[in-house]
């Protein structure tokens, strides 16, 4: 699977003297970090996304708001992650967005993130672009113990069973089998 997803929105061209003006806003995101253990992110680790916006139209775009939509252990969170005053025609703008994995994210098993952007042009048209989603694995540390109990003495009066008032002695061993 790929770690880069792009989205593109094109508004209807606006006829102006000498041709057409057209707004085209692209947004993409890539995963810019890796889990420390090489397999999955754990609580407290940071997931870093590289966001790239490109104005492929022939109009300057104004008032760009970039929003993130993240699904993780705390449900779906929509938040504004960046703003930009102007994205000139032909311009590419990059920034990073960081999310710190919560205990809820780790227990959920994954985090899915997508980004979207809105912008306007000089004619009052609004543009919306949305990236694809990136899903990264998360995990909680495995907490596991093994408990073993063994009888350490034998019946005194009968070889197969204890009788009333005899004392049974046990040994219990608890072994940590977790990855902590």
What percent of residues are in strands?
over 45%
Number of helices: 1
- What is the mean predicted local confidence, pLDDT? 84
Approximate helicity band: under 10%
Number of strands: 13
Cα-based radius of gyration, to the nearest Å: 29 Å
Task: Label the structural class.
Answer: mainly beta
- Overall geometry: rod-shaped
Give the N-terminus to C-terminus distance in angstroms: 30 Å
The ordered H/E elements are EEEEEEEEHEEEEE
- Oligomer category: single chain
Major sheet: 5 strands, antiparallel
Low-confidence stretches: 1-14
Fold and architecture overview:
The protein is mostly beta strands and 180 residues long. Helices cover 3% and strands 55% of the residues. The strands form four sheets. Strands 6, 7, 9, 10 and 11 form a five-stranded antiparallel sheet that branches. The protein has a four-stranded antiparallel sheet with strand order 1-4-5-8, with no helix packed on it. The protein has a two-stranded antiparallel sheet with strand order 2-3. A hairpin with a 2-residue loop joins β2 and β3 (19-21). The two termini are 30 Å apart. Residues 1-14 have low confidence and may be disordered.
